[in-house]
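User: Fold this; tokens only.

Assistant: Input:
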Amino acid sequence: MAHVRPTIRVLRHDLGIPIPPANLPLESVEHPLLDKASHQFADPDIAHERIRAIDDTVMFKVKVQRWRGAVWRDEPSADVKAWLVAGGMREEGSGDDFYSALTAETRAARARYNAEHDKPLITDAYSAHLLPGPDDHDRYRLESATRFALRLNRTIRELVCGSLRDGHEHAADFSGFRLGILIRAEDGHETYVAIRITGSVLRDLVTLILSRMPGCPPEAWFPEVALPERDLLPAEQVWSNLMDPKAAALLLDEE
């Protein structure tokens, strides 16, 4: 289902919900208005009612129980396709008071804009202050980085345990690169680790991957010119280290 994402302002001020940690995407926050918006905009066959009084951009109505909201759609190429940009509750006994108040707010914003700028707006409304801003995009990037780090941690652990069990390379694909891990552990000998990265990756990403390997001294990674059984292919890089046998045994015990 395509989720509608709330702006930070909506979440904090309109819905009264604290901003959650970065490992929880804002579109996953549970609230009746967000749930209704996501269901409504996930189905292309559902007709949407436009807020006609807001004429400087296109916004749509979302209604559930006594909650009312305004959804704005970004460009199709954007990471987030739809945003909840305003929300509130209908007063008991009133019909569309939320949208009347929203209209009044955008018209007051237009008046302020025209008072502060030489070139006046020709629209009746001004809603730019409701749309996602730098804080919203920074939060989205933070969530993406957090998701990647959590997936990287989980995948490295799975590849390490798989290679510890059978002595073969185990690999996984990420966006833009492939990660392989080979571990050779012999009784009475050191536990050799090789990490293969295939693809064009930044040095910072290589450092991040190496730093997440359990039981390996971060300062002891050494670039290799070959894998134990073959030479490197184009766009491959390999780094080797020695793993603490106790850390390896602990990982397998936990598995």
